[in-house]
Design goal:
Pfam families: TctA. The protein has about 500 residues and is mostly helical. Helix content is about 70%, strand content about 0%. It is globular.
Amino acid sequence: MFEFITPLFVSLILGGTLVGIIFGAIPGMTATMAVAISLPLTYSLGLENGLALLLGLYVGGISGGLVPAILLGIPGTPSSITTTFDGYPMAQRGEGEAALRIGIISSFVGGIISLAVLWLFAPTLADFAIKFSYVEKFLIILFALTVMAALSSDMLLGIFSGVLGIFVSLIGVYDVSDGGNGKLRLVPPGWEYWLDSGFSLLPVLIGLFGLAAILEQAELGVPRGHSAKDIKVGRHSAFSFSVFRGQAVNLVRSSAIGTFVGILPGVGGSAASIIAYTNAKTFSRHPERFGKGEPAGIIASESGNNGLTGGALVPLLSLGIPGDSTTALLIGAFTLQGVQVGPLFIGNNPGTWNAMIVAMLIANVAMLVMMYVAIRWFARVVTIPKHILFPVILMMCVIGAYTINYGIMFDVWTLAIFGLFGWLAVKLRLEIAPFIIGFILGPSAEIYFVKSLESFGDVTIFFTKSWIAVLLWALILGSVVLSVLLARKARRGEGS
């Protein structure tokens, strides 16, 4: 049952967690980037060992972001934004080490609670989803896209980004087996040879999350960098577990919020930590202390963003829909090994399912031990000059894109095209998460839509097929209404 636990399996988790923490601890480098550039390495490792590496990177990367957030007031990852609110003030008054240990323990609790939710609910949801027909599967994808649009910073841009991702995913031959005519579509003149099968998924992912991030940092120039003098760990700041006294509700509630947000497609860790932090402040007896170095704020932020790690895997493994950008990258690992995720995945691949649960557990424990014991060493990571790191990462991106399909130069051009697109998308305020999830789910949405019409012959079947279809339409309508209300609230906030 646990034959996958080998020295190599454990070593990859530990190594992935360590590298992930380092990536998360360097501002501008994220867990998503770490997973993106490591994807090609998983091809030769096999599925279980490859996932061990990627899940270690995922857990370590999310957790490592707390280091610069507390010591420099700069979030290492977007999900650590709210950690800066109270962590940095604590560091400024000489309590940096205590703040770091509070964040590390909170991250561990959030990760373990979300892992328990993943283990308990993903198989149940998958068993239920097996009964879905093409109609319900199409509506599930439509629901995922409307949720992403509702929770984007701009609803219309979120919808446009998702539709653009679907549009790009449909480039290539419209396969007869998918209900098509076997001819090319959406291919510019002169590109027919290269785009016969459309853009390859993995170079697209590496470009959007690896190269685009490097271009963003390159645009900023070569910063002065941070020296050891900038880091105020607070050598004499005492840490005591008594700081968690009376914080059990905050820990569990924030972890649950992070897990729930992770289950929603495309929302991301920054939303999880912000919602958890806001709730902690709302229910606190001393809300006036938040933002001034209140440990409860760090507890809420870090347990919330690490609660995302297990939650984001629930829709991926039970429905085939990624919960965030990083889990979207995991689809690349499955694709490399020829495995399709969806309702049948857990039942057909019990060994891989168990390997993922064990890998997540070991990664969370490893993160706790590594960061708690060696926090002073990880604090020095923030001083590593990025002008040395980024050329190495760029080289890894190019080599990974070139070798992923046995040496196709067009994959390197794909990397460049989507790296530039990812860089420009930020300036145009497009949403990358809806785009990439639309790109991944677009072909499936088309197949389910066409097969539904072939089977039932009428679009009314999408409204009358079953009570599940009716429920999904209610959820879709609810997400649209929510997006309108959020947009109105935002406009009122800007006007006041």
